[in-house]
Amino acid sequence: MADPKGFLTTPRQEWPRRPVEERVRDWDEVYVPGGLLPIISKQADRCMDCGVPFCHEACPLGNLIPEWNDLVSREDWRAAAERLHATNNFPEFTGRLCPAPCEAGCVLAINQPAVTIKNVECAIADKAWEEGFAQPAPPDRLSGRTVAVIGSGPTGLAAAQQLTRAGHTVAVYERDDRIGGLMRYGIPAFKMEKHHLERRVEQMRAEGTRFRASTTVGQDVDAAELRSRYDVVVIATGATAWRELPVPGRGLAGIHQAMEYLPLANRVCEGDLERSPLSAEGRHVVIVGGGDTGADCLGTAVRERAASVTQLDIYRQPGAERDEENEPWPTYPKLYRLSAAHEEAGALRTAPQAHADARLFAASTLRFEGDEHGRVRGLHLVEVDAGRRPVPGTERTLPADMVLLALGFSGPDQGDGVIAQLGLGLEPRGTIARGPDFTTNVPGVFAAGDAARGQSLIVWAIAEGRAVAAAVDQYLTGGTSHLPAPIGPYDRPMTA
After folding, report:
1. What residues of the chain score a pLDDT lower than 50?
2. How far is CA 283 from CA 50, 373, 377, 457, in A?
């Protein structure tokens, strides 16, 4: 604890964002480049080095947060990077994309703004790359065992890196033309520029991990055949089966799933397309769904110069303070949060009929209306109470010639044939069934990440990847694995 009074004398200060008018004209990250380093050591000073650090418990990775806070406070970046990477393969991903349940569990958050743990993490990760601390770590010897990982999202990449470093020969299969899963084509570049992903993939290649992009297991390669060629198969395909909105008018043209829309915008940034065929430019856009994916659609539509953008959230607007009775510390509370995309929409007044941040809370879609050409032109909604029951007399219509559905995901996509070809058992909710050691009903086949857990956070995805790697390593060696297993398959976030 470098400064015993830091939490008393230093106010919370977060990574500053670039001006709205500047950042909506490009696809670069929203934060001021280099804006963390001048403030981050003093922010790390605010950590109290608690005797029982609940930030550990709130983070499924078990990050050694007080330790690297102290090292950053002393500007010992090399040691901080070592402690950070001891529990997290990809801290530059979580430092940008994770909603930071660790901060909700910060002891300081009981009565003050929490330590900026996420910002400190990101600063360490970026400094590690800048100073050359994130070098490849190939194994000293190979085990002679082979593993196929299906899916290159955070779970698949974390599992592959851990198993490669343990000496196993690992190949990662990805159906898209580039590695990264949803981090590649689902997360907009203004939240995480793709060079962060590229350098991790290159690090893994240098360590020995092999990548097979543009290969759909179940179609290009039979899943059962793949199982016969490898000692172990790890399924980390994510939960990509999107939820539908079965209301009248759903079949009208101009209504798209978020994951049909976002990848095309990312491909424009990658240089694959000059213009997205689903561009929001000049359109009145309504986004159905109040989560992070909806916010990603919002920020993307703003950058594509939509005529208006409105986001519908079926839940009531949360408060600015924690509900101590229903969501006590250290659980992750549902609070009113202003993402970068909401800040942009509010500053630009993109939704004249909505709140200042472009959101309409407690709003449920009743039906869509279209024109004589079968294209959507309006969305009928109604206000709902806390039980999602319609409030009489509140029905109204929003102009909409483009609707994006961001309603979350129900489980793995079964259309590729992997589940059927392997004969995998499923849970009632559609996720892959597994045992306490991440094994499925098929010997030698393991399941991890959202495909088995269900839709979750990136930090849980990485934790799953590390944990399944330990289980696979133990299976392959027939003994005790030295790889860390931060969580079990049945662990869940802290709730009241």
Report:
1. none
2. 51, 17, 10, 31
The per-residue pLDDT for range 194-243, each reduced to its tens digit, is 999 999 999 999 999 999 999 999 999 999 999 999 999 999 999 999 99
**pLDDT on residue 1:** 63
Residue 44 CA to residue 36 CA, distance in Å, equals 11
Please report, as a single letter, which amino acid is at residue 234: V
Distance of CA 21 to the CA centre of its chain: 26
**Spatial separation of the C-alpha atoms in residues 489 and 496, rounded to whole Å:** 20
Q: What angle do CA 98, 102, 108 make, to 5 degrees?
A: 135
- Ordered strands of the 308-313 beta sheet: 255-257, 402-405, 284-288, 308-313, 359-361
Residue-level pLDDT at 299: 98
Q: How far, in Å, CA of 106 to CA of 11, rounded? A: 15
- φ, ψ for residue 334, nearest 5 deg: -90, 105
pLDDT of residue 2: 72
* DSSP-assigned states of every residue in 287-337: EE--SHHHHHHHHHHHHTT-SEEEEEESSPPPPSS--TTTS-TTS------
Cα 463 to chain centroid distance, Å, stands at 13
Residues 6+ apart with CB under 8 A from 246: none
Q: Is 414 helix (H, G, I), strand (E, B) or coil?
A: coil
Q: Work out whether the CA dihedral 438, 441, 443, 447 comes out positive or negative.
A: negative
Predicted structure pTM score: 0.97
Query: Which tokens sit at 168?
Result: 């196993």
Under 8 Å between Cβ of 397 and 373: no
